[in-house]
Amino acid sequence: MAGRRGARTGRGWDAAPSARTGGSGTGRTRRGGSGGSGGPNGPGSDVAGRPVGEGSEPAKPRNEAELAREICLRQLSARPRTRAELATALTRKGISAETAAEVLDRYDEVGLIDDAAFARAWVTSRHQGRGLARRALANELRQRGVDAETATEALDELDETAEAETARLLVDRKLRTATGSPDAVFRRLVGMLARKGYPAGVAIRAVKDALAERDAEAAEFAEYVDPDALADTETEFDRDGL
Questions:
Q1: Cα–Cα distance between 180 and 186 in angstroms, integer?
Q2: Cβ(193)–Cβ(167) under 8 Å?
Q3: Cα 146 to Cα 140: distance, rounded to the nearest angstrom
Q4: Of 154, 146, 152, the residue nearest 83 (C-alpha)
Q5: Looking at the DSSP assignment, which residues form a beta bridge with residue 45?
Q6: Cβ count near 139 (within 10 Å)
Q7: Where exactly are the structural domains of the chain?
Q8: 175-227 per-position pLDDT tens digit
């Protein structure tokens, strides 16, 4: 009796299917139907036809507005942007015009886009950091999509006195290492200021005054410089490098 019980115990979970079910493989077919590799829903599927064994549900298609917001925030994290700059970035990424307008309108409402504030900050930063004058700054703002009225309001904060003072500082800085005859130095320095957007009269006067204080030779040359008479030669000076 003990031997017969031991034999029955030995035919447990690892017994052949025919011995466990009394048939020819019906138990294996049932297992396949509940998610195994041989079920009616195909390999790797459960009874509802969903993939199994991946550990997560398939990713949902991304919403266009969500993608547009992500693009804008990524752009704004680098530096402030104008509405036009963000619109261009969205277009390049294939965002529809309608979705772009909705997202940008919302960013306008919450203050993430403010072209007026951008223009004021740009003028202050570029004038103080690079010594750019109104004309050059107006061109940069236009390239970034700031409208003429907004740009003008920002540029009005930079008056003629401030421009003249900055022009003189730039000339004094360059004059420390400038070499050559007074005439050559004069042309290079005026050309440098012209490329930064300074009017010819402002540029010539700044260089004339600086040369007058440099040495006797430069002062003698400066004495004969007439800023008003030379104002029309701005294009010529702009071609000269420093």
A1: 10
A2: yes
A3: 9
A4: 146
A5: 51
A6: 13
A7: 64-110, 115-155, 160-239
A8: 999 999 999 999 999 999 999 999 999 999 999 999 999 888 888 888 878 77
List for the chain the helix, strand, coil content (%; round to 5). 65, 0, 35
Query: 151 and 141 in contact (C-beta within 8 Å)?
Result: yes
How many Cα neighbours within 13 Å face the side chain of 26?
A: 6
Q: Which tokens belong to 101?
A: 């307008």
> Tokens 């042309």 identify what position?
187
Nearest to 65 by CA among 109, 95, 107: 95
What's the whole-number mean pLDDT along residues 76-102? 96
Greater confidence, 51 or 198?
A: 198
Mean pLDDT of the 152-161 span: 93
Distance, in Å, from the CA atom of 234 to the CA atom of 198, rounded to the nearest integer, reads 10
The pTM of the full predicted model, rounded to 2 decimals, is 0.67
Amino acid 7: pLDDT: 43
> Within the chain, what is the greatest distance between any pair of CA atoms?
133
Half-sphere exposure of 100 (CA within 13 A, CB side): 16
Which residue has tokens 């009874």? 47
Full DSSP string of 70-114 = HHHHHHHHHS---HHHHHHHHHHTT--HHHHHHHHHHHHHHTS--
Q: What is the DSSP letter of 197?
A: T
